[in-house]
Specification:
By secondary structure, the chain is an alpha/beta fold. It has 12 helices and 12 strands.
C-alpha cells in the first residue's frame, strides 16, 4: 500500500509513523509531510526526521507544510505535548533534515498523474490536504483514499464531552475546522477514526510494562514517556486510567480492519471560529457518505499489533 503520511508530529504521530515503518510487508511509506498543530510546523519536521532516523529509514523524505489553518490565524494548539511536541522527551540529534521543497509541491508531484494511487494517512489538522484538493483538483485521481484521525461524535466519559481540547471539539478538527469540513465532503473516499474509537485503547500501567518488555533500551523508554505525557489531561477530562493512544489507529486499521467496527454516514464540522462549538463533528444526512470507525472489537489485539510493529521498527 503506497502511503503518504501527513501529521503534526507530536508524540502520537511519531509513534504512528513507527507503526507504519514496522510493517514493510503492508506499507510503502513514500514520505512524510508536516502540519501545524501539536507544535510548530518546523519542529514537527524535525521530529519526523528524528523518527525516520530512529527507525533506520533516513532515505524517506520529510516536507514541511502549512503553518496556519485555512482562513485563520490559529497556528498552535494546547501545548499538551509540550514545546517540542514530544512531551519534553529529547531525542538524539538527527543528521537528517527536512527537504527544501514545500509539502504542497511535493504532494502535487506525487499525486498528479501517478501510475498508482496513494493512501493519504492524516494524523494532524487537515490543512495540507484541503489546500491540495482545492488548488489542484487533478490530484484527486492519484488518491486511493484518505484515512483520518479526528473528530468525536461522543459524548464520552463521565463529563459527557465531545472533544479533548474543548468540551465540544477534538484537537485536529478544532485546529482547522474549515479544512476538516472540506475534506469530509470532498468526494474522495474518506475513512474517519474519531475519538469514539480511539478512546478504547488506553496506555495503562500494565500496557506500559508489556511494551517496555519488548521495546528495549532508551528508545523504548522515550516512546512510553512521549505517549504518557498526556495522561494527566486524559484523566482530568475523561477519568481514564492512562493516556489515550490516538494516531496509530490510522495504520492499525489499515493493517487489521477486521479488528474495527465501521458504519457509513454523512458528516459536517462546525466551522465558525467564534462559535462555542467550533470544530464540533456532526452527522449530516445530505453529505457524501464517510466510512466511520465506530469502535475497536479487540483493543488488546490492536495493542499487540502496535507493540509488534514498533518493535520491528526499532531493530
Amino acid at each position: 500500500m503506497k502511503i503518504l503520511h501527513d501529521g503534526d508530529h507530536g508524540g502520537d504521530d511519531f509513534v504512528a509513523t513507527l507503526f507504519a515503518l514496522g510493517r514493510p510487508d503492508l506499507f510503502d511509506v513514500q514520505g512524510v509531510v508536516t502540519c501545524h498543530g501539536n507544535t510548530s510546523v518546523e519542529q514537527a519536521g524535525r521530529n519526523a526526521c528524528a523518527c525516520l532516523e530512529l527507525a533506520g529509514r533516513p532515505e524517506i523524505p520529510v516536507h514541511v507544510g502549512a503553518s496556519t489553518a485555512m482562513g485563520m490565524c490559529r497556528s498552535q494548539g494546547d501545548d499538551a505535548f509540550g514545546g517540542n511536541g514530544l512531551g519534553g522527551v529529547e531525542m538524539p540529534p538527527a543528521a537528517k533534515q527536512p527537504e527544501a521543497e514545500a509539502a504542497s509541491e511535493w504532494l502535487k508531484r506525487q499525486l498528479s498523474g501517478a501510475s498508482s494511487p496513494a493512501t493519504l494517512c492524516v494524523t494532524g489538522p487537515l490543512t495540507n490536504i484541503a489546500n491540495l484538493l482545492g488548488e489542484h483538483p487533478e490530484c484527486r485521481s492519484g488518491i486511493e483514499r484518505i484515512v483520518v484521525m479526528g473528530g468525536c461524535l461522543g459524548p464520552l466519559g463521565p463529563f459527557q464531552r465531545f472533544g479533548n481540547i474543548t468540551p465540544h471539539a477534538e484537537f485536529n478538527f478544532f485546529m482547522d475546522p474549515e479544512a476538516a469540513n472540506y475534506v469530509l465532503e470532498c468526494g474522495v473516499p474518506v475513512t474517519l477514526l474519531p475519538m469514539d474509537a480511539t478512546h478504547q485503547l488506553v496506555l495503562t500501567e500494565d500496557r506500559k510494562r508489556a511494551a517496555l518488555s519488548r521495546w528495549h533500551g532508551a528508545s523504548g523508554e522515550r516512546l512510553i514517556r512521549m505517549l504518557s505525557s498526556v495522561e494527566s489531561l486524559d484523566h482530568q477530562k475523561f477519568e481514564l486510567p492512562g493516556a489515550v493512544i490516538h494516531d496509530l489507529h490510522v495504520f492499525a486499521y489499515l493493517a487489521t480492519p477486521e479488528l474495527y467496527q465501521t458504519f457509513e454516514c454523512g458528516l459536517r464540522v462546525v466551522t465558525d471560529p467564534k462559535a462555542d462549538k467550533g470544530g464540533r463533528l456532526l452527522i449530516c444526512g445530505d453529505r457524501p457518505p464517510v466510512t466511520v470507525v465506530g469502535g475497536i472489537l479487540s483493543p488488546d489485539r490492536v495493542f499487540e499489533e502496535m507493540v509488534t510493529a514498533i518493535s520491528n521498527s526499532l531493530r
